Amino acid sequence: MATDYTEKRNFFRMNMDCTMQYTVNGDNVQKSGIVNNLSGDGISFVSDQEVSPGTQVQVLITPDNTVTPPLDVTVEVIRCDAGSAENQYEVAAVIVRR
């Protein structure tokens, strides 16, 4: 069996489609977003606000069931691109605190 070396990530990326709550550090307003994918060291989500690279964001993902604990992490934005709809941004971030 041949090994595929095209994927250079440290962790597998899980595609997701779930809601999340987030707070941009320095702001007291909690907002909602949609998680696109999650890995052991990063996250990609859709936001209705542009978030500058280098900004730290507090992220909370609460599963629908009680078996899985919530994910509460601080991430640092590495990229924020305009989404497919107006006032929609695709944010990519690395986890800096678990």
What's the topology here?
Elements: E1 14-24, E2 31-38, E3 42-47, E4 56-61, E5 71-82, E6 89-97
Antiparallel strand pairs: 1-2, 1-4, 2-3, 3-6, 4-5, 5-6
Q: How many separate domains make up the residues?
A: 1
Relevant CATH superfamily: predicted glycosyltransferase like domains
Q: Kindly state the mean pLDDT as a whole number? A: 88
Main structural class: mainly beta
Strand elements, count: 6
Alpha carbon gyration radius: 14 Å
Number of helices: 0
* Strands in their spatial order, largest beta sheet: 1-2-3-6-5-4
**Which residue ranges are poorly predicted, with pLDDT under 50 across at least 5 consecutive positions?**
none
CATH class: Mainly Beta
- Beta content: over 45%
Determine the CATH topology: Thrombin, subunit H
Helix content: under 10%
What can be said about the biggest beta sheet? 6 strands, antiparallel, barrel
Q: Order of helices and strands, N to C?
A: EEEEEE
CATH architecture, by name, is: Beta Barrel
Task: Give the end-to-end Cα distance, rounded to a whole number of Å.
Answer: 36 Å
